[in-house]
Amino acid sequence: MSQTKKIIMANQTWALDPTHSELQFKIKHLMISTVSGQFNEFKATVRTDDNDFTKASVHFEATVDSISTNNEQRDAHLKNGDFFDAEKFPVITFDSERMEKIADDEYKLYGTLTMRGVSKKISLTAEFGGITKDPWGNTRTGFSVTGKINRQDFGMSFGAVSETGGLLLSDDVKINANVQFVKEAVAVAA
Predict the structure, then answer these.
(1) Is the Cα dihedral 56, 44, 156, 164 positive or negative?
(2) Is the pTM of this model over 0.90?
């Protein structure tokens, strides 16, 4: 009696390559210019069925204390209770619900963003950069992810007014992430 080998595909896991990824945000200041910042410590995993990203499951975490706007005084203010409250809420998370293909290289990513203990459903645009092999034989993929959230939805209601009566900060915050992932080895059973 001959035995047939059956290969069982496990969900494919893609791990974030932090050295080739960035997470930035932009907000209007005095409604006349834009201030940029970034989180220097973050991690993410994507789980797919092989290379099919329409069935992707995304989990993302950013360490609030790693925020940087190239201004120590502003960074300290962002970490306090007026904004992120890093001591009480040290991590920002995003967990996807679904990823919808819009075009050959464009997806809509739907999920729940949690900041300051508040969880809200959001949608992001994810531009697919492709899949390639690196010089060491690893399979890699990349995405540019953009979106916009309202900071007040997450309890960041600091709202100073300028001398001319205008808002000091916009409520809208633009998110821009350029992320690269490495495909992990798949477990197979015979």
Answers:
(1) negative
(2) no
Could you say which DSSP state residue 165 is in?
S
- Enumerate residues 6+ apart whose C-beta is below 8 A from 172: 27, 28, 148, 149, 150, 151
Q: What is the dihedral of CA 73, 85, 22, 29, to 10 degrees?
A: -50
Amino acid of residue 27 = I
Evaluate if residue 12 carries a pLDDT over 80.
yes
Residue 24 corresponds to which tokens in the numbers above? 């930035």
**Rounded to whole angstroms, how far apart are CA atoms 39 and 91?**
11
- Residue 39's H or E segment, with its range, is strand 33-39
Question: Residues near 60 by Cβ (< 8 Å), separated by ≥ 6?
Answer: 42, 43, 44, 93, 94, 95
